[in-house]
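Posting for a labmate who doesn't have an account.
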Amino acid sequence: MRTTRINLLPTLIILTATALLAACGGGSGTPATPPGATAAGEGTTPHVDLFTAADLKLGEIDPVMVEQGEKIYDVKCQACHSKGPNRVVGPGWEGVSKRREPAWIMNMIVHTDAMLSTDAEAQKLFEECLVRMPNQNLSHDEARQMLEFMRTL
């Protein structure tokens, strides 16, 4: 029985090595890109329907939406953003609705990846903060509540 194991060992090693090499991928020479991302130099971005000023109807501040937006902030945003002017990881939010257009804020919340790929101001913030803002997968309604909360800061 010992002889059988010794004879199978080289075969097992060859099969394992072959399987590992095959799992490493082909030899196309180009690095793989994650789903939904574009390869460097392609110059294209995934199509998204960005918000425009016409999409947003802002009136008086809605206290119910502000409360909901603050709850979302407490859960998903406060680790990186302060309510004041100081930067934590990302920029502070005080006065953000005066510095940025509402559609820009909504797009940054909902379409984070597209904004970081195409918007010069978003790219500038990324360069300053050195950390890519993660997409929090908020709905349009949740983003609108966040915007309403930001309008109070």
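Reply:
Got it, the structure tokens are right above this. The radius of gyration is 24 Å.
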